[in-house]
Amino acid sequence: MDLAKSGNVTAIRADNGDIIYIPSNGIMPKLPLTATDVDATTASSLTDLVRTQAVDNSLSKEERCLASAVYFEAKGESLAGQLAVARVVLARANSGRFPSTLCGVVLQKGQFSFVRGASLPPVQTSSVHWRNAVAISNIALENSWKSPVEGALFFHARHVSPGWRLTRLGSVDNHIFYR
């Protein structure tokens, strides 16, 4: 099933739930992939692109805020779900309706349940969840992949019903996204 077509890439959902990105020329890249082989026009899946991201602990404050939001809000979700969360934070920072910095968005009072007292909780930076959160944040910051719910400014977990009167864009994993 086609999820999105964007210029030179088509996104489809595989039977296992992975989102697979296929170049419009239909030519899949050689395998195994290396960091120099994979970019936004040749990666066969978001998983491939995540695997090639250089991840270290030399993040800027803004990068750490975005990665923390992905980590705490979506670490148990698919990579597409994590990307959707990252893209919401970026969309908010660029919207003019929220603080203009990533940390401003993430630390804004009452917006993210993991934030306590305007500070980020500690992160287990040696975990695979943190590595994925940093990789997804890099991909979102580089605008390498679009989210299946691109343009969303709000989301909530499926188990809550906030009664928002917003335009629902769709759901990814356990989150529902709105504009």
UniProtKB/TrEMBL annotation:
GO function terms (MF aspect): hydrolase activity
Entry superkingdom: Bacteria
Gene3D superfamilies per the UniProt record, alphabetical: Cell wall hydrolase SleB, domain 1
Claim: Plastid is one of the keywords in the record: no
InterPro entries (alphabetical): Cell_wall_hydrolase_SleB, SleB_dom1
Keywords, alphabetical: Hydrolase
Residue ranges of domain Cell wall hydrolase SleB in the record: 76-178
Entry protein name: Cell wall hydrolase
Native source organism of the sequence: Sphingorhabdus wooponensis
